[in-house]
Amino acid sequence: MKPIISPSILSADFAYLANDIEMINGSEADWVHIDIMDGVFVPNISFGFPVLKYVAKLTEKPLDVHLMIVQPEKFIPEVKALGARIMNVHYEACPHLHRVVQQIREAGMLPAVTINPATPVAMLRDIIDDVYMVLIMGVNPGFGGQKFIEHTVDKVRELRELITVTGSEALIEVDGGVNLETGARLVEAGANALVAGNAVFSAPDPAEAIRALKNL
Ligand SMILES: O=C(CO)[C@H](O)[C@H](O)COP(=O)(O)O
């Protein structure tokens, strides 16, 4: 199975966002990854719903929305209003994660749980049957273009084992530091979906970079 490719528009040129979205529309990308940051959960602020409303209008691929914010459950209606297919919330931001996952499903979206580099895969044991996807961060969230943290590959392997043992159908997505080299190892370890920012938008031909990732 070819990996699902979800380009992260955090690395796009915000002054010409429509051009980058059209590039994604015409590419082999499967989803579009939207990183929402609040300057509290992570030390950066990206964009909010007034901007994303226009991004969503132009985008023809399903939206894979990643909330790097505290209390993400407060924004379930806003994420739903964007037409998002997947809503990713951080394990570290949700003391009542099981409830939030149910709320996302009840709102008609697919729930995904994200773990930071310092969070062990074992913390997902009691939620793995309830989620559509787990997103493993390959960098500390907040910025694009960071160096890939090596133990992410082992975490993917460990999560693949947990999924096999529990019979869960959760997908594994990785975000941060993904390029052709790290992507190949992540897919080999059992990742189903790759988020790529810098590797796509800094490439001379971003659509070709997406195709190369898709063919890993
Ligand atoms: O969530 C993110 C940062 O918090 C970005 O999606 C991620 O960093 C992608 O960018 P790159 O591929 O350049 O690392």
From TrEMBL:
BP GO annotations: pentose catabolic process; pentose-phosphate shunt
Names of the cofactor(s): Mn(2+); Zn(2+); Co(2+); a divalent metal cation
Residues annotated as the enzyme's active site: D35 (proton acceptor), D175 (proton donor)
Cross-referenced InterPro entries: Aldolase_TIM, Ribul_P_3_epim, Ribul_P_3_epim-like, RibuloseP-bd_barrel
Catalytic activity line of the entry: D-ribulose 5-phosphate = D-xylulose 5-phosphate
Superkingdom as given in the UniProt entry: Bacteria
Cofactor binding: number and manner: Binds 1 divalent metal cation per subunit.
Signal peptide: none
Protein name per Swiss-Prot or TrEMBL: Ribulose-phosphate 3-epimerase
Gene: rpe
